[in-house]
Specification:
Strand content: 5-15%
Shape: elongated
Number of strands: 8
Keywords: Coiled coil, Membrane, Transmembrane, Transmembrane helix
Radius of gyration: 47 Å
Strand order of the largest sheet: 3-4-2-5-1-6-7-8
Helix content: 55-70%
Structural class: alpha/beta
């Protein structure tokens, strides 16, 4: 295996391995190495500047991002939620990004190292990165190796210092790793959690430090957690994923490509794939420990060279340089890190909008399910209890009304026009008495049992409506909850014994008061018209007969030139027309009465009492979901515009680096 040119320790040891080794020769050779070779970072000119990206200015994009963040809705969480904490985090992070965009001085690049679990060994990664194989200070290496012995220590800050010092949780080190980049480096190391790997990864993702630092490095062991699980997480754009296992870079790239292609299009649009490196930190630490104990042994140096290069630790430094963009000065790197923070904020906002849309979609599915359930209940209840207009199987209500209809038809048939004439003043009395005796007389007892069943359904639907609000906090508004409570506490909400029997009595009274009364009036009018027609016919016939009797040949109707026989015929025709008109009027009146009978319905209790809370909830929830979807659509459009401006800036930075 060829030595990695980016590994400083390997470069030095390869040089030394070609020299004749003796205790004096080794120390003398090390003393002759130039200071620039001992990992001093390159000196850059303070006058190095770069022109701002053309088209869109970074500060403009930053200001737009800051203005967009407060517009992200907080539908599904309370006032003291993680969303509120995230807003505070982004406010502080973007404030620092503004300083980075405006600064011309140096500041350390903040790097966080977090392990998914204790088996990922992040402490070995940091030890291997900071160790100096050429240093004879074994005490410092021992301190570095045992820095996590204190169980109460959870976080450690490691920075460059002229001398090694351990004032935990702060460590100052002369490690060449901290000064080999164009900008100084500070490490924030966290204790690996003794948790399930999935829980450990969740803990990392909830740690605000991964967004506060410039470059988070997450260490995982593929034997305890799958790479797919880590890659499926929403990681910051500058994340470096360190896999503590020996994978070739080609295999890692294939895994990443396969995972990215399996993601939904919505996730691929907003996700950023981290840089992945495969290292063996334990092998590197053992190699450093061996060379420090036998630094004048050629086999030890050769073994160190093989083991350290085989650990692939140099790929971490290479990934860090890639994240810094190979820019020549610290101010330019600060601007690049600021761009990354803005991109993280936009990515978080996009994911937040995506989550809210998914939440609204789930709420809409549950609302539709509740609507379907209520419709199913309506069909079931109407088929078994209430009269249904859908021609389902006969129910108790249908049987009672049809039985009453058959018996009333007999009574109505007995009221023929000639019998109606003699009972014209008793029509309403006859029909009213029949309605009181025949209209669903035995149905009230059956409906009392159905009232209890509907009470159970009413409580179930009401509970389901409030459970729907509790399940989906994104649509649980105080206004909607108050509207449902008003429906529940209204006077017409409770189901009583008269809930189903009341409409029967009401309909019976309506039939007596309106259709029956119209039938009575129509009968009286028909009798009056018939009497008028008959009397008119008799008068005309009498006049004709009198004319014939007197022998005038003309009679009283001679003035209109009617013969006596014609006059008698006209009188009879007039009487017959009056009777025929009376028959038609009576038939039409009875037909209208039956139409009023057929319009009787008993299913108002379903809409006004049993399903009222559920129907109100579904109606208002659908309106609320549509309104919030429109709000999120407008927000997504604005986010895409800001992302396009940021992408133009990133492309310009890449061209200049």
């Amino acid at each position: 295996m060829r030595p990695c040119p980016t590994c400083l320790a390997s470069h030095r040891l390869l040089t030394i391995s070609h020299l004749r080794l003796s205790p004096k020769g080794f120390l003398a050779t090390r003393a002759r190495l130039p200071s620039s070779f001992l990992a001093k970072r390159p000196v850059t000119s303070a006058t190095t500047t770069t022109s701002p990206p053309t088209g869109v200015e970074p500060l403009t994009v930053l200001h737009k991002t800051v203005a967009l963040l407060p517009r992200i809705p907080n539908y599904d969480e309370g006032p003291n939620s993680r969303y509120t904490e995230a807003n505070r985090l982004w406010e502080a992070t973007l404030s620092k990004a503004y300083e980075d965009f405006s600064a011309v001085s140096d500041r350390p690049i903040r790097i966080a190292v977090l392990g998914v679990d204790e088996w990922s060994k992040p402490q070995d990664v940091v030890t291997a990165l900071l160790a100096d194989p050429l240093s004879s200070n074994e005490e410092h290496f021992a301190q570095m190796s045992s820095r996590w012995l204190d169980p109460s220590l959870q976080k450690m800050e490691i920075m460059y210092g002229p001398e090694n010092s351990f004032t935990l949780p702060t460590v100052r080190s002369t490690s060449p790793f901290l000064t080999q980049f164009p900008a100084p480096v500070e490490l924030f190391e966290f204790r690996a959690p003794s948790l399930d790997p999935t829980a450990g990864l969740s803990q990392i993702l909830q740690n605000p430090i991964i967004y506060e630092v410039d470059i988070p490095m997450i260490v995982c062991n593929p034997l305890t957690i799958s790479l797919s699980s880590v890659l499926s997480s929403r990681l910051p754009v500058n994340t470096i994923l360190i896999v503590t296992s020996t994978f070739s870079q080609g295999d890692l790239n294939a895994i990443v490509h396969h995972h990215s292609s399996s993601l939904p299009s919505s996730r691929r649009l907003h996700s950023s794939t981290p840089d992945i490196v495969s290292v063996d930190p334990r092998r590197a630490v053992e190699a450093i420990r061996a060379i420090q104990s036998q630094h004048n042994s050629l086999p030890a140096i050769q073994k160190f060279q093989n083991d350290f290069l085989g650990s692939n630790m140099s790929s971490v430094a290479h990934a860090l340089r890639k994240k810094m963009g190979n820019l020549p000065s610290s101010p330019l790197i600060r601007k690049k890190m600021a761009i990354s923070h803005v991109k993280n904020a936009l990515q978080w906002s996009s994911f937040r909008v995506l989550d809210l849309r998914n939440t609204l979609d789930k709420a809409f599915v549950d609302v539709s399910a509740l609507e379907a359930r209520m419709e199913e209940i309506r069909v079931t209840v109407e088929s078994r209890v209430l009269a249904s207009d859908r021609k389902l199987e006969r129910s108790a209500v249908q049987e009672a009304t049809q039985e009453a209809e058959v018996r009333l038809k007999e009574i109505m048939a007995s009221l023929s026009w000639w019998r109606m004439i003699w009972k014209v003043d008793e029509i309403s009395t006859i029909i009213s008495s029949a309605l009181r005796d025949l209209w669903c007389s035995n149905l009230e007892k059956k409906l009392l049992l159905s009232t209890g069943e509907l009470s159970v359904l009413q409580a179930d639907i009401t509970e389901s409506a409030f459970a729907l609000l509790a399940k989906h906090r994104a649509v649980d508004t105080a206004v909607l909850r108050n509207a449902l409570l008003q429906c529940k506490t209204s006077l017409g909400y409770p189901l009583t014994a008269a809930t189903l029997t009341g409409p029967i009595q009401l309909r019976r009274d309506q039939l007596i008061e309106y259709p029956t009364m119209r039938l009575h009036i129509a009968g009286q009018r028909a009798v009056l018209v018939a009497a008028t027609g008959v009397l008119s016919g008799i008068g005309i016939s009498w006049a004709g007969w009198m004319g014939w009797l007197l022998g005038t040949g003309e009679g009283l109707l001679g003035v209109i030139a009617l013969e006596p026989g014609t006059a008698i015929g006209l009188g009879m025709l007039t009487a017959a027309a009056g009777v025929r008109w009376t028959i038609g009027v009576w038939k039409k009146a009875k037909k209208r009465w039956w139409e009023d009978w057929n319009r009787a319905t008993l299913n108002q209790a379903m809409d006004r009492q049993v399903l009222v809370v559920g129907k109100t909830a579904c109606k208002d929830l659908i309106q609320l979901i549509h309104a919030r979807e429109q709000e999120l659509a407008e927000l997504s459009k604005d986010l895409q515009e800001v992302e396009l401006g940021l992408n133009a800036i990133v492309d310009d930075v890449h061209r200049k680096s």
